[in-house]
Amino acid sequence: MNREIVVKEIAGVDVLQHKNLNMPVEKFVKTIVGRRIISVGARGKWLILELQGMQFLLINLGMGGDILHFNPGAAMPEAYKFRLRFNDGSGFTINFWWFGYIHLVDSEGLKKHKMVGELGLSLLEEGFTLEHLRGLLKGRKGNVKAFLIDQRNMAGIGNVYAQDILFKAKLHPNRKINTLTEREMQDLHASMREVLAKSVEKGGLAYEKDFYGKNGRFAGEDFLVGYKEGKPCPICSTTIKKIKTGSTSTYICPKCQKTSST
Amino acid sequence: MNREIVVKEIAGVDVLQHKNLNMPVEKFVKTIVGRRIISVGARGKWLILELQGMQFLLINLGMGGDILHFNPGAAMPEAYKFRLRFNDGSGFTINFWWFGYIHLVDSEGLKKHKMVGELGLSLLEEGFTLEHLRGLLKGRKGNVKAFLIDQRNMAGIGNVYAQDILFKAKLHPNRKINTLTEREMQDLHASMREVLAKSVEKGGLAYEKDFYGKNGRFAGEDFLVGYKEGKPCPICSTTIKKIKTGSTSTYICPKCQKTSST
DNA sequence: TAATCTAACAACGA
DNA sequence: CTCGTTGTTAGATT
What we know:
Mean pLDDT of chain A: 95
Oligomer: homodimer
């Protein structure tokens, strides 16, 4: 996206679902049109477009969706909830499988933003060292999985990635944080980065599309236990089970991932 | 207290438990000494002493305790965590059975105070009409009892009073708010005010002392079902049971107070 | 299947 | 007999 849309000037936007926005449609349109894109960045599951005049467009695809580029005169993607056109005729659409966020904020609003403002460090950033993770875990008492997918602790782990991160670290999702050994924290840290790096390397999940509509290649065969209910564990061949953990589900190997310590 | 301490000037304070305060002891002492008491008021379970220069002393006895007056030269109460002396030699002590708050704030701090600032209307105030209660209940879905004892909704109902309020209104503590009929809301409103008014009339609970050390007269024989486990219901003679409701206990008549609607 | 908010609820500690 | 904090859960959302 950086290559494709930076510097371009916004000519117009179409909002098909006003509830995606954090303000009335008119105000949104008035504020955004005429500004140029300064930079494109990401924090966890949020995409951040910096606009001229210290305005920021924050996008989160929620349960899933796509952001697709279109060239001047070329065919538009069929389905979308939001469309943005630049003054050269190119642009992009955003579609949500269910719901998502398209929020416009100034720099003050960015700091105070309920979700983006409270994000933890992204997993693959330099600063996300073992020491940093140790510091986050210190003094906590909840379940490991709830901790991992809470974006305020660290940004980037969703339910899909949590599956194999836990399996690789041999941790039960409901393992209590304050019972983790030093060795287990090391394994957890390594697993987190390995699983995410692998997905990035493969261009994301297979059901996700990139800016040009190309699907990722991180697919079912790359998962170790995630979504493999009834299949054998790749390590010990025990049958993989699906369990309820809080409001999400987790696929585990009941033998490799026990709740009790070590 | 209004009669006894208003206008007097604070000569000194002794803080025996610094955790009761919201600031370091020295700062507290320095701010408070030399000021006069302007007025004494109450909001729910909080006592509010207004001092000269827009300072406020907020006192909450927590699980219980007493505030006792002493005359110049007279014997002090034996046990206390806090003592305040006026320049005429009189004063008062505060004792907590377990834990309590003695917070000093300015008018800005009063508005922003975590507990006092968010208190709902006091039960016996003029404005606490049936319409007001109806408005508070509107759109809620939780249990009636949790609602009643949450001081942000209305100030003044503790676990003791909640017992008979619910019994008189024939409501089970876990009755869902959104299933209450108009009639039940009327009964609830009346019961709340009756139970509180009765206690005020009797000078408070029997295990509580007033400013002069005199105990209240609202005692066990005035309770209808509260703390009467195993005794017969005064209406239908069914045996009163003690049940767990959230983090508190409630004494109910299983026949008069059913969970289901009407 | 996926992500997040909110309200309600529970356990713990001061 | 009280309260804040933290964590957990169910329900809701487009």
